[in-house]
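Notes from the 1:1 (GR / supervisor)

We went over the backlog. Supervisor wanted to see one worked example end to end before approving the batch request, so GR pasted a single chain during the call. The sequence is below; no edits were made to it. Supervisor asked that the structure be written out right there so they could see what the output format looks like.
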Amino acid sequence: MNTIEKEIGTRQAAIRDESHALSLDEQQHHLQHQILRGVVEGEKYSSASETQDKIAKLREVNKRIDKEKEKLGLDPVLISFVTIAITAAVAALVRWFEYLGAPPQGSVAIYNPGPPIRVWTYDEGDGVRWFAFKEYFIDTNTVVPLTARGNNAIQIVVIGKPAVHTCAKGQAYAFNGSTMEPRT
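Structure output shown during the call:
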């Protein structure tokens, strides 16, 4: 085992050992890493409340760092602004990933009397529409329930057509070749 592997093993053991006194910068880095890793891994290993606890600990560490840097004569206002911005961004990411993990509620029924079509559904608040929630193939004279996340509606794009159709959940629509017409 070379010295680098020994150093890595020593650092990993120190991080696991809660009683080990890490410097404030190491604590900050460790907490940021834990939070971001939880976000990237979809909170598989920790609950939302554990993530919120980590964010609260990170804020406390940031406050202690500010006090230490103030003693050194560094500008605490600028440092505080940056750490608050980073903490807020991480908290927003956590909320966004929790939303992405939520299952869709409700559906929109689409009837296709014309030739077969392919459609993509998007979440109600998705303004960018880079990634479809789901893709469907709707054959002639077929009714298909479409889903995506949202409280009141979902967005539907028929492949090859320029329009984005916003359809209310719990409603039925017919695609006439260019528009979605409500059905009763």
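Supervisor's comment: The mean pLDDT is 76.
Batch request approved.
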